[in-house]
Amino acid sequence: MTVLVPDGAAVRARPHRSSDPDIVATIGGTPLVALDRLFPPARFQVYAKCERFNPGGSIKDRAAKSMVEQAIASGRIVPGVSTVVESSSGNLGIALAQLCNFHRLDLVVVVDPRTTPQNLAIMRAYGAKVEVVEHRDPATGEYLPARIARVRHLLETVPDAWWPNQYANEDNARAHHGTMREIVEALPAAPDYLFLAAGTTGTLRGCAEYVHAENLPTRVVAVDAVGSVIFGPPEPWEAAHKRTIPGHGAAVVPALLRPGLADWVVKVTDSECIRGCRSLLAEESILAGGSSGAVIAALQQSAAWIEPGATCVAVLPDGGDRYLDTIYDDHWVESYLQQYLPPTEQERNTP
Ligand code: PMP
């Protein structure tokens, strides 16, 4: 069988043999490392699931693989014929670009001006077409609805186009049954607490479903961004905190979300998330992305109520390489933190 690659040249499709591991087969199986310096184990033990070790650099490789391969298996998309269209500002776009290149699918990623030049360059290097939506949705002032409107237009005009729709696609969530299984298998017993970042809530739903299906004692703590609407409308004080760091938090309630998936929700400001990243780097030599800093900040805030001797796992969704101009740039951080101070205890406790 021959398929077309984006430049029009015909190549032979690779035969798939299970004994023949390829780059897609390396998705998952990420390391779990102890964070003993940041969280001395005399109190409770913390391990980090380091998702940057996926070949596309983030946890979204799992979701992209699951969504694309299920769509191929069901016949919804055909390598060499179909075009995948998705809205993403970063990690999912990169993960899809890798998967679509591998499976000889065309890909259009709809982004907005906040997507970094480096992320755009990575997507293009994999052969994705990138469309930048320049204007925010007039009704909400957000880019997301404008990006979705562009996706809908492309679905109507591009032949054999398919939208994975990461906020509603159950295969996004199903990918994370494996994430939780790997965590449990790497430890002597299931952890007492799982701290994870919520965006599309695919990670949350998949891990929580596994916990419930296996009847595990693990309590799931979802980490959201101050100002996000995922778990309900923001409190009035949240309006003063602009949400800039991508990954966790959302401007819409994801269709994947179900009641009861999270035992607790912790909301973190951008400045707390920057501090979390910086402490992970200073103490553990881990250069992690913004939402990882949020997860660490949430753990630090929760330390007082985590019982002594507990085991906690923090899912770190990506690496810090994609945040060098922001979170790891002293000048950016200095001017940013001056603008947005963390909320006081009183603010947090005022309904
Ligand atoms: N952190 C980062 C860096 C991400 O890219 C994402 C995906 N948007 C998340 C956290 C949230 O993961 P999920 O979409 O599975 O909720």
From TrEMBL:
Q: Which InterPro entries match?
A: Cys_Synth/Cystath_Beta-Synth, P-phosphate_BS, SbnA, Ser/Thr_deHydtase_PyrdxlP-BS, TrpB-like_PALP, TrpB-like_PALP_sf
**Keywords of the record:** Pyridoxal phosphate, Transferase
Molecular functions per Gene Ontology = pyridoxal phosphate binding; transferase activity, transferring alkyl or aryl (other than methyl) groups
Cofactor(s) recorded in Swiss-Prot or TrEMBL: pyridoxal 5'-phosphate
Q: Does the keyword Ribosomal protein feature in the UniProt annotation?
A: no
Q: Does the keyword Transcription regulation apply?
A: no
Q: Where is the Tryptophan synthase beta chain-like PALP domain?
A: 26-318
The annotated pathway is:
Siderophore biosynthesis
Task: Identify the CDD domains for this entry.
Answer: CBS_like
Tell me the enzyme class.
transferase
Could you state one GO biological process linked to this protein?
A: cysteine biosynthetic process from serine
EC number, UniProt record:
2.5.1.140
The record's NCBIfam families line, in alphabetical order, gives: PLP_SbnA_fam (TIGR03945)
Q: Which family does it belong to?
A: Belongs to the cysteine synthase/cystathionine beta-synthase family. SbnA subfamily.
The annotated subunit structure for this chain is: Homodimer.
Q: What does this protein do?
A: Catalyzes the synthesis of N-((2S)-2-amino-2-carboxyethyl)-L-glutamate (ACEGA) from O-phospho-L-serine and L-glutamate.
Protein name per UniProt: N-(2-amino-2-carboxyethyl)-L-glutamate synthase
- Where does this protein come from, organism-wise? Kitasatospora phosalacinea
